[in-house]
Amino acid sequence: xxxxNIYTRITLIIIFSLLTAQLIYSQKKMQxxxxxxxxELDFSINWKKYYTYEEWTGIMKDLQKKYPGLxxxxxxxxxxxxRDQLLLTITNKSTGKHSEKTAMWVDGAIxxxxxxxxxxxxxxxxxxxxxxxxxxxxxxxxxxYTFYILPGLNVDANNSxxxxxxxxxxxxxxxxxxxxxxxGLYDEDLTEDVDGDGELSDMYREDPEGELRLSADGRRFVxxxxxxxxxRFTRIGSEGFxxxxxGRINEDDIGGPDPNRNFPYGWxxxxxxxxxxxxxxxxxxxxxxxxxxxxxxxxxxxxxxxLIMFQAPPPTRLSASQEQELREQTETRLEEMRKTxxxxxxxxxxxxxxxxxxxxxxxxxxxxxxxILKNYTPVIGGLSGQANAATYYMLGAYSYLIxxxxxxxxxxxxxxxxxxxxxxxxxWIDLDLAGDGWIxxxxxxxxxxxxxxxxxxxxxxxxxxxxSRYIEMEAEKNxxxxxxxxxxxxxxxxxxxxxxxxxxNIYQVDVRVENESEYPTSSDRSVQLKRYTPDVLxxxxxxxxxxxxxxxxxxxxxxxxxxxYFRRSDPGPETQLSAGEKTEFRLKGKEKRVIRYFIAMDxxxxxxxxxxxxxxxxSDKESISIVIE
Amino acid sequence: MPRKSEKGIPVIxxxxxxxxxxxxxxxxxxxxxxxxxxxxxxxxxEYLKKVNKAYPGITELMTTGKSTMGxxxxxxxxxxxxxxxxIDRHIDLRNKRKENIQNVPPMKIHQxxxxxxxxxxxxxxxxxxxxxxxYIIDKLVSGYGKDENITALIDSKAFYICPVINxxxxxxxxxxxxxxxxxxxEKDDDEDGKINEDGPDDIDxxxxxxxxxxxxxxxxxxxxxDDPRLMIRLGSDDKTDKQRYxxxxxxxxxxxxxxxxxxxxxxxxxxxxxxxxxxxxDGFSGGSGEYPLSAPETHAIAEFFSNYRNILMAQxxxxxxxxxxxxxxxxxxxxxxxxxxxxxxxxxxxxxxxxIGEEVPExxxxxxxxxxxxxxxxxxxxxxxxxxRGYKLPRGWRVSYNEEDDERYGYGMxxxxxxxxxxxxxxxxxLWNPEADIPGLKxxxxxxxxxxxxxxxxxxxxxxxxxxLFVEWKKFSHPELGEGETGGWKSLYARNNAFPGxxxxxxxxxxxxxxxxxxxxxxxxxIKDVKSQIIFSGNTNEGTVKRxxxxxxxxQGKGKGKYHLVEITAVIENTGALASNLAEGEQLPGNxxxxxxxxxxxxxxxxxxGQPFVSLGSLGGTKKIPxxxxxxxxxxVKWIIAIKxxxxxxxxxxxxxxxxxxxxxxIK
Lengths: 629, 668
Known about the structure:
The complex is a heterodimer of chains A (about 625) and B (about 675).
Chain A: E1 12-18, H1 53-66, E2 71-78, E3 84-90, E4 103-107, H2 116-131, H3 136-144, E5 146-150, H4 155-163, E6 202-206, E7 212-214, E8 221-223, E9 233-238, H5 269-272, H6 280-291, E10 295-303, E11 307-310, H7 320-338, H8 356-373, E12 377-380, H9 387-395, E13 398-404, H10 409-412, H11 422-432, E14 438-439, E15 442-446, E16 450-454, E17 457-458, H12 471-487, E18 492-503, E19 506-515, H13 524-528, E20 535-541, E21 545-547, E22 574-577, E23 582-585, E24 592-601, E25 605-614, E26 618-628
Parallel strand pairs in A: 4-5, 4-10, 10-13, 11-12, 22-24
Antiparallel strand pairs in A: 1-26, 2-3, 3-5, 6-9, 6-16, 7-8, 11-13, 14-17, 15-16, 18-19, 19-24, 20-23, 20-25, 21-24, 25-26
Helix pairs in contact in A: 2-12, 6-9, 8-12
Chain B: H1 40-54, E1 59-66, E2 72-78, E3 115-119, H2 128-143, H3 148-156, E4 158-162, H4 167-176, E5 211-215, E6 221-223, E7 231-233, E8 245-249, H5 296-307, E9 311-319, E10 323-325, H6 338-356, H7 362-365, H8 370-378, H9 384-389, E11 397-398, H10 414-422, E12 425-431, H11 434-437, H12 449-464, E13 470-478, E14 482-489, H13 502-519, E15 525-548, E16 551-574, E17 595-600, E18 605-609, E19 613-615, E20 634-644, E21 649-655, E22 659-665
Parallel strand pairs in B: 3-4, 3-9, 9-12, 10-11
Antiparallel strand pairs in B: 1-2, 2-4, 5-8, 5-14, 6-7, 10-12, 13-14, 15-16, 16-20, 17-19, 17-21, 18-20, 21-22
């Protein structure tokens, strides 16, 4: 039973009946120490490892087998080479169908070599499933919402990156053949592991006219100063053979279009060729999202840079001087706000009124994200055919591109100058990684080039994807950010009902509804796209109650709402007149709204039911009775 | 259906058939085809399979995708499958990654030949284009080995013919009688929980879906005085004393929701679903899709063009009107390279107008006087684009961009997309102009030309088709609309398709001639004047040179045998009329320059001067394009190599759209 504010002029007894239907789940096990052991021992995963396609999909299948009541696994389609893109659908099946609950979308590794996203997505799934029985926070999320998790998106390249020797940069793209060097052949000259050491490094040749020499410790190639008399080198390129005999090495590597330029929003021929949604891997994802409009927010994992790139509404066009003024205003305001909260964010983007709320919501969410992730920087994301741009601009879902991890500057910058010198970097490798990340230069016999040197570079998981010892660190906090956002999915309720006698047998009934969460029941963008369902308050009265027809208009009782950061005092909830038995509106994040009814009652006793339904925000129901003494 | 069978001899304009027996004889049985009826989807598929079976040496039947309802979209390749070559057959790849990724399929032999794409029925109810495609197939395959020109074309070029881009639309239009312009979509258009439950119906059960007319004071139609079978549509401001009627397609409210045909199988307009100038338009009938190439049919076409980059010419048949659109509709004149405009208008447009018998603009007949025409036009109130060109585009060869009002038309059309993004001479011909395609059609005088033509067509079908194309009006009581009459043109012969038989044959023959002309313009690259001159011969050893100030120490290794130092020169020439790419075509992503490789066993050759392959840009064509400075049609290539005795050597020239050729070199 909830207690409500009751105001009466004439003595009325108002009886409430609670009719909310809510399945109450009794937890099987309770965690002994918050944040401590939870269910990780129920299903162990070694997080100091990057997994191949067979391995990570095997883990997904095993997770689904162990938690069948919470988890489904399925393919959203096949990659170019015929691998299934396997998706986990996580929700408590007994509390409802996944497609009918508000959902979070998470995908990892659209770029083949950015496989950190696979471990982060997998970690989130594992966390949700293994903690379900132990952790009330996780328990509630999984009961109420759906998580669609696609750990590997560019599965062919993802597998190759983990399983075979590769440079940090490749394979990035999907496997559509492309003629990068214009010689008529497609993908004919790939990188290879020349010396068979399991790593791809750089190749150098001894060259009396070369600009490079070995460092004193023989581990790196450094610039040779003028007058240096010793052995000089010239860099040839990445490790590989001249496959097609054209005299060049690795000039036409595997893969074609950048999958994160392939989406239909802001698409260009130069970046996204051959055509929008040409890659089955990306097309499958977009088609899935089109078919699942219950997705309210989405995360897309990338490496590297420690960034939270979020989609913001379209900017209002300003002159150069206005832009400058806005930037300065923002900087000043931000400085002020940071005195009390070092993680708070503010962005120099002006948007039109109908998008102001999206801008506010995103600012709030990424500020919390900055707090949770500690050393990530939120920035506004770009368009250019990217997945997250299509998610927000075409589907109206809040989207975030996370650039995971980043250079070890924060850890290894001993002289605090904001840069990592070669010496600082080598020290990080030697002490932080116990020497385990470097390929020392060594001589090799190359069939096309003769005697060459290979080495002087970091191993594979060093520059873009983190060394394995840091996998869990990145995964754990990013999972918490996703869960925070899920916890902010809209939750609507009927907050309070007031009845006031007006005259004779007319009563004014004010029903205050509320969305308790940060996210609105529909984004501004989805309203503009007409891709949303309004929230509805349905009135049903007993036979002796007549509803007076009113317009449904806002009464504008409070001052006009401005950006939440600039609001000095709370003006109070908007009040709107009911629009008949069915009144529609859209609840913004943390919004309270009053729907005002005028009813006429014959006789001494009447009842009224109020049912609040929100497609993405849940539902609530309250009944009142009016009794004349 | 017309019972009169038409076996007239098609008129062949200006062509001399030379009966030359080619060594390659085919045991082909000619596949009979008649144009007395529309083939629809099923008939077309059967015909394509028959042709492929009868001509295995010069045809390949490909399925480029499937429609929404699962019907294969066929492309018939017509090219000599035992001639030609592709670059990947000549280059040996070594030391490949142990991973063994197999993402590059071997090239098909016809990818090494300049390609010409012809298609019909992007719109399901515009099936005249399908017939023209079948006619062209028939002419090509039955001309092979008999006609010198056709034989040479099929040997050296690749025709890709896709008679039906929209299988579901064509199937419904021709085979079920429900005319459907758009593709099919399984969509709940009226959001009532059921999919495709309410489409057109044969309400009077006569086997045809024609029209229903009923008296309606708000209606837009009146009955023609001259021919009371004809319903004349009034303009919104027109006034009349006559009884007004409303006319609808035969239809009832199948799901009793108060609306008719609100949720039919019809989906979206495929010619609004391509990526050039696309935007999401839900106002347009069926919309333009959730995103470009969202429809399976357009997706299949896009995938096809992405894989067959050898295509330089493309044609998308539509109806009606009897004219051709060349690019662009979504952008104005300055968005095209003047070199491309010159080829389109002066070369192709001129020939097209000659074929359809319309007047060719003066400026095209005397292109050397173009400056004078520009001056003359500047004095008039013509639009700025015509002024800058020196001519207005004529009715028969035009753009869909509205030059007079300076407004873009449409968006997401195939022609624009292939020109701008794939570098193809892509056009859309709107077939069927009864006045031109039915010679002797007697058109009565009337200020409303459209009505006059329809009267003439009605009479024509009375006389030549036994009146079978039109259903006489007869009383019918409509469950929702009350008393009225069913009748009108049978949907199959609704006025936007050529009548089967002689009119259709006229349309086919004209457009066959035009595509034949265009195919004749395709580039053709040859290697000639190959010279090899031995500079030095002798036994050689491996050697490494180490430097010590001015002393160079040579470390001799093992013997390698007899080697020659040779200078190779050759001329690469395009003997075709048009250049091997559009003016800026080679710069488009996915396209490339022409390249020439010098290929020999890798361990036996060393390049002293020159690289294993050299980029040649694009080779110009032989045809002088008025107002354009042609790129050179010839390029010289030169290498100096050290090659082991008795090692086979060859030059391979690979032009993406100009074909691939190889020439062995004998070193003497």
